[in-house]
Amino acid sequence: MSYAHTFHIPVMGIGFTIDTPAKVAHLGISSALSLVDDMLMEKMRELYCQKLNLPFRAISEKSFDFRAKRITAYLNVLDQTVKMKMEELKKTISEKKEELEKYKEMFPQFSTVRQKLDSLLLNQSDVKKMWGWVRENLPFGSIDVNIMTKLDKENFDKNGKLPVEFNDAHAALRGFAESTLNSSVILSAGMNPRLYSYMEQFDCFFPSSDGRLEKRIILKVSDYRSAIIQGKFLAKKGLWVSEFRIESGLNCGGHAFATDGHLLGPVLEEFKNQREELRQSLHELYVQALKEKKRWFPETPFAIRVTAQGGVGTAGEHDLLLDYYNLDSVGWGTPFLLVPEVVNIDSQTLKLLEAAGEDDLYLSHISPLGVPFNNLRGNTKDQEKQALVASGHPGSRCIKKYASLNREFTERVICTASRQYQRLKLRELEAKKLDPEQYQAEFDQIVEKACICVGLGTSALLVNDLDTRQEGTGVSVCPGPNAAYFGKAVSLKEMVDHIYGRINILTRTDRPNLFLKELRLYLRYFKKMVDDATAPSEKQEKHFVLFRNNLHEGIEYYKKLFSQFPEKFEQTKERLLNDLEAIKQELFGIQVTRG
Hints:
The chain is α/β, with parallel strands linked by helices. It has helices at 20-24, 38-52, 66-95, 97-104, 112-122, 127-137, 168-177, 193-198, 224-235, 264-292, 315-323, 347-355, 380-390, 419-431, 436-447, 452-463, 492-499, 514-532, 538-564, 573-588; strands at residues 7-9, 30-34, 143-148, 156-157, 160-161, 184-188, 216-221, 241-247, 305-309, 329-331, 361-364, 373-376. Strand 4 (156-157) and strand 5 (160-161) form a beta hairpin. Helix 14 (419-431) runs antiparallel to helix 15 (436-447).
């Protein structure tokens, strides 16, 4: 893959980026879509087949291996769509010089694509040569897919439980592997050894005799230790990790997988310092495994890309991450929720995002996965949920079951946001005969769960005028805290110009530095964790001390960084250092032990 841009668009929810590659890949921009919802993908495939006059044949749930087949079919249509749009783009810019100028201006000044086009435009004596280069060299953005490894629900047919390869994540992986895409699968939400082992079944993840990887692996991680453990596990199976995608534990959208106080800056520093050692150690295991499998192996290590995402909001921050930490790309997620031509964002949710302040963006417990979840106050799915509670019928109809993980009351897994589960749980609560205050607290915890596996896909249905009779019209949305500082919808060109520092689209001047924002989020998270432990055990106290020490080490790291490179930060060095000292004092003011 060639990467023409220094940013990528990460997966957002289920439906927001479900067809983003079809909108940006022909422009050289890489993006990712979720493989959670095959029902939504089937609807989107029909839509795109109609747009492109392609034949469409529905894949019924009665078909054998329907989930994998639906995913393969949709990804193939996306691939075909991008290739057709690229041909249209080449034709357009070859006929109209102004269109070539517009295309060229999307890239950063230092881009090899832009420099080559500038050179060709300056010297147009050989027009045939110029258009020959354009036809052969315009870069595609990668059409990457995301699999949440923990969403691996087992499935059944009329004869009982199906083999493990028909589990949700396994079927999604197979759907990607059998597609025509030459791109990457992003494995997120932690390690799933059984799923990782299943990857060995597909030749496309192994190198061909000319050293090419048709399908590549990206691991989303929040610290270096996780990268080593998962990378070595895969290398021992002859599977190469082509990219480690580092995401902030808390300053991100979607589910928040908080670390034990390991902050983004120190984590990136560790990757920077250990990157070559990591590459070499994985290469040794990789070659040994390929030899044992009697497969072709590389004499020298393949490249490893290192990228990061979570809370980036200015060109200065973008450049710092690239230049100081030697990153290959920076993920811009939440800001793109305000770019309707790139994502599926319905008008009502867009208005809420435009008006959102810091207090409207909060870490909730609405996810049935039991992981803290970034939420937007007042979203229409939460309104729908609250109306059901008020009517005396809490819980959602569980029509998709992707988040069904609970066996508390049933032999087969069910979802904690479902009507079935909440009825059973509330019946159990009634039997406890608690006092009103305790009862209400436990009641609220039960009914807080929302049907996000439907809600996170609904916006794609609304935007594309697709049938919502089954799903309803409630939309869940999961922006990161960064959304508070982007207060208006913008075009793709405006967002790209902002990323590269050509314009500024921020609507507030008080946006904190991304590292300080994450640090404050961790401080708040830590304080709540300590406060919630009314009678902490010795083990909990040890964890609190470890967490606090990690945050303290992060503060000391940032003091050195801000002092070393004051010109790279929007605020003055003195202000940043004063903020760090204030946070340090607050951190050590939290009582973490009984002694």
